Amino acid sequence: MDPITLGVIWGALQSIAVEIGTTVHKTAYSEQAREGQDFSVAVFDRQGRMVAQGPYSPGHMGAMSFAVKNALAAHPVETLRPGDAILLNDPLLGSGHLPDFFVTQPAFHEGELVGFAVNILHHTDVGGQRPGSQGVEGIFDYFQEGLRVPPTKVWREYREDAGIVGIIAANTRTPDKVLGDLRAQRSALRVGELRLQELAARYGRDVLFRAMDEIIERTEASMRAAIRAVPDGVYTFEDFMDDYGPGTEPLRVAVTVTVAGDTMVIDYEGSSPQTASGMNSYINYTRSYAYAAVKCLTDPFGPMNEGALRPITVTAPEGSFLNPRPPAGGGPRAIICYRTFESVIGALARAVPERVAAAASHMANPTFGGRDRARRRRFVAYELVLSGTGGRATRDGCEAMAWAFNASNIPVEAQEANQPIIVERFELIRDSAGPGKFRGGSGIRRDLRFLADDGKLTNLADRQTVAPYGLFGGRPGTLGRTVINPGPNEEVVHGKASRGFAYGDVVSFQQPGAGGYGDPLERDPRRVLEDVLDDYVSIAAARADYGVVIRGTGIDLAVDEQATRELRATMRR
After folding, report:
1. Which of 40, 306, 309, 436 is 20 to 30 A removed from 292 (C-alpha atoms)?
2. Distance (Å, rounded) from C-alpha 530 to C-alpha 517?
3. What is the DSSP string of 16-68?
4. From CA 499, how far away is CA 483, in angstroms rounded?
């Protein structure tokens, strides 16, 4: 194709994806969608192949292709009409867990199908055993986790099916937010439909179709070239989830990455069996974060579409917790994504050491329910506590960021304005980052006081017994923990416990620090001093972890260079 036309159409497809996402962002009702950006969007061609995606969650994107294929298998293209939209949240068919609602809408131009606009949004609550539908304890199948929707036309020729929507509303604790978010999804896809129609009208359908084909082909060629640049070999790694609930054993995540020419096979053989809990990751979700890790390490700036997935094969043993047999629970599967992502990075560290990062601090993704005394209503609140990322080959990790996916810490003001919550502390934790030539990001502490009755906490955290790993001599970050009413009489809460809390209780999420990269004794002493002045590192930790002696008081601190050289020489010996 003419490169100018191809470039303009590619830019337009990306813009359409972002505009769909912006519409969701601006019109969603829930805090996690409007503020945390826990949603994703993409544009597909008429064959159901992803062509362009918005800058959102890789976990959603990797699974979205499978969700669309399954939606179209249930509702073939010839049965679709303008204004139809297909909803599904079945874990086995692409969703991964019940709170994720995928909606697929066709776009027609002059009676001919030109593509699909698709989005997915994590909904606040879809029923089930626990508020937020993400319980770990006491779950033995997904029937306990909430409402399951197979591929269903919720909209027919732009008309909403009141009966189906009524069933959804009747099976959630937060019907206002769920229906508000669902209609935000549908309205955003209408925007995507209009933009695809305009693009087809401007350039003609045949040109648009050729451009979509070429974008996918070029993406595949680019990914294959990037994989060829990785040394051939078989690379292995293992890491562990803390457990799958109080009193249970750790879950092993084992991976073998085989690089052969322009292809890569990622095999999770050796990982733990599926669990009788919510701690399972259906294969589409496992695939998603394996794809994301490979993309980050090979062709991070190229397009992410069907072509980028073709050279990569991801497998996990059927019956493992990374590929469970239905109807296994999977509501809290988001807590697993860091580990599937980081295991691939750990495996490929020997192959591309300059591109990898050490393990990140782990997120906390708890949900809360109860009665809002002031507003006289039930509530369900959702939290994302996103912490530090791992040290890298040339720089430190980042602070307070999502690692394997693109989401945000929910602003304090948004939670306090909409929920019976006061955020009493939101801060970095001193001396939590894994030491290294380039240190990891710091852990985050977020303390929430609940002004609610009949409170129910569904905790969802990890790295409280298995620390985030360091690389190439870098040390692990500190462990995390969750406590109720921090202080002399504090009560430690298991990372995956379901329990109650009382009006006025404070729940404190103290996240682990991220791992370091490289020998801490090689860190520039001036950078250690900067970390002390910025309160990332204490004077005592500067000496014990980095061998850097700092003299002075207050802000008048300086490195004692002679004492530092002597101490580091002793520590090396």
Report:
1. 436
2. 18
3. HHHHHHHHHHHH--SHHHHTT--EEEEEE-TTS-EEEE-SS-HHHHHHHHHHH
4. 12
> What Rg, from alpha-carbon coordinates, does the chain have?
24
- For residue 270, count CB atoms less than 10 angstroms from its CB and return exposed for 0-12, middle for 13-18, buried for 19 or more: middle
Task: Extract the tokens encoding 104.
Answer: 């697929």
- For 385, the token pair is 């506590």
**Whole-angstrom distance, CA of residue 446 vs CA of residue 459:** 14
Q: How many CB atoms lie within 10 A of CB 69?
A: 16
- Give strand pairing partners of 233: 259
Q: How far apart are CA 106 and CA 74, in angstroms?
A: 14
Q: 242, 248 in Cβ contact below 8 A?
A: no
Among the listed residues 450, 460, 468, 466, the one whose alpha carbon sits nearest the alpha carbon of residue 494 = 460
- Which residues lie across from 267 on neighbouring strands? 256, 315
Q: Where are the domains of the chain?
A: 3-218, 357-518, 525-572
CB 27 within 8 A of CB 41: no
DSSP 391-445: -BSSSPPPSS--SSS---PPPHHHHHHHSSEEEEEEEEPTT-SPPSSBPPPPPEE
Mean pLDDT score of the chain: 96
How far apart are alpha carbons 405 and 396 in whole angstroms?
19
Q: How many residues are listed for the chain in this entry?
A: 573
Helices (H) and strands (E) in the chain, counts: 13, 22
pTM across the whole model: 0.95
Q: Please report the pLDDT score of residue 353 as a whole number.
A: 98
Question: Which residues make beta-bridge pairs with 105?
Answer: 117
**Helix, strand, coil % in the chain, rounded to nearest 5:** 35, 25, 45
Q: How far is the first Cα of the chain from the last one, in angstroms, to the nearest whole number?
A: 64
d(CA 505, CA 6): 58
Q: What is the pLDDT of residues 332-341, one digit of tens each?
A: 999 999 999 9
Residue 58 — very low, low, confident or very high, per pLDDT cuts 50/70/90? confident
For CA atoms 452, 454, 460, 463, the dihedral sign is: positive
Is residue 170 very low, low, confident or very high in pLDDT (cuts 50, 70, 90)? very high
3-28 per-residue burial string, b: 16 or more CB within 10 A, e: under 16:
eeebeebbebbbebbbbbbebbbebb
Peptide bond into 326 cis (omega under 30): no
pLDDT tens sequence across 281-300: 999 999 999 999 999 999 99
CB neighbours of 376 closer than 8 A, spacing ≥ 6?
Answer: none
Mean pLDDT in residue range 380-392: 96
